[in-house]
Specification:
binds 6-hydroxymethylpterin-diphosphate, 8-stranded parallel sheet, globular, 11 helices, 315 residues, alpha/beta, 3-stranded antiparallel sheet
Length: 315
């Protein structure tokens, strides 16, 4: 299967087929493929991910995520959240079982799988991304129908992960992070944050392609809040066009992050307001961002839909 660049989506319920096909239209023209488990729908992984803006709903199946840790640890709650986000217009949902908030310690493969497996099982047939850096977790998630791996370590965390993504024909998000979650907000320094993030993403994209992952399946993310001061985050967002110039879709994840609270004058803020995240998303869209990883899907879908209409009216 290596290098074949297909995404296999097993059906959960045949009656959902029409809606699922519509939601996955951005992946390209699907075709049917009989398998031992029944008919699977294969999406050619050739889409440029450029039908922007695309909203990715965050589903944190964790006890300790920075803004929503706890409430979605129960599978039923996480599933309801994901289905609600898809109803509100999310193009896909990003299911994660490990928090990467500043200071977090990480969890074992077993624990991560225990958290997300029941959720992924139920979401089969829906467009799901798995937020993990572990090859074993990604392998299981792809087997359960996930179409994207969102790796905050950009393939530096687990040497096996690139092969799993390539073999699974999955999309991949490569994110920039300085250091590791436990220590990253200590005292992050850059000569020029945009130049350094850009060089990093370029190098990681080349590494992914070398490992057999088609370039067309990769999106890039500056990693807002991952080893960055407020000033670094603002500069990255202000000069986003320089990252867009890399030629791959750019994903921005600013939703509820603490730098937003700090921008608004609360030096002790642990989270930022939804409205501030929406403002960032709209301006990032205007600068060329394609994907938006957010907790509050409805607000972002509405704001970005309006921004798109405005941009197109002026084109
Ligand atoms: N941010 C978080 C987690 N994963 N992935 C990408 N690609 N980009 C991001 O900015 C990003 C990410 C952190 O946010 P959240 O999932 O809400 O919190 P936690 O890591 O505490 O679960």
């Amino acid at each position: 299967m290596r290098g074949k660049a297909t995404v296999a989506v097993p059906w959960a319920r045949p009656e959902d087929a029409e809606g699922v096909l519509q939601r996955l239209a951005w992946l390209g023209q699907p075709f049917e493929c009989p398998s031992t488990h029944g008919t699977r729908i294969i999406f050619p992984c050739e889409h440029e991910l450029d039908d922007r803006p695309l909203v990715m709903g965050i589903v944190n199946v964790t006890p300790d995520s920075f803004s929503d840790g706890g409430p979605f640890l129960r599978p039923e709650a996480a599933i309801a959240l994901a289905l609600g986000q898809l109803d509100e217009g999310a193009a896909l949902v990003d299911v994660g079982g490990e928090s990467t908030r500043p200071g977090s310690e990480g969890v074992s493969v077993e624990e991560e799988l225990e958290r997300i497996e029941p959720v992924l099982e139920h979401l089969q047939g829906f467009p799901v991304s798995v937020d993990t850096s572990k090859a074993e977790v990604a392998r299981r998630a792809l087997a359960l129908g996930a179409v994207m791996v969102n790796d905050v370590t950009a393939l530096r965390g687990d040497p096996e992960l690139a092969g799993v993504v390539a073999d699974g024909g999955a999309y991949l998000c490569l994110m920039h992070m300085l250091g590791e979650p436990r220590t990253m907000q200590g005292d992050p320094r850059y000569e020029d944050v945009v130049d350094e993030v850009k060089a990093f993403l370029e190098e990681r994209l080349a590494a992914a392609v070398n490992a057999g992952i088609p370039e067309e399946c990769v999106c890039l993310d500056p990693g807002i809040g991952f080893g960055k001061t407020v000033a670094h985050n603002l500069e990255l967002l202000a000069r986003l066009d320089e990252l867009v110039a890399l030629g791959r879709p750019i994903l921005v994840g600013a939703s509820r992050k603490r730098f937003l609270g700090r921008v608004l004058g609360d030096a002790e803020a642990l989270t930022g307001p939804v409205s501030a995240g929406v403002a960032v998303a709209v301006l990032a869209y205007e600068r060329g961002a394609a994907l938006f990883r957010v907790h509050d899907v409805r607000e972002h879908v509405q704001a970005l839909g309006t921004a798109k209409a405005l941009v197109e009216a002026g084109a």
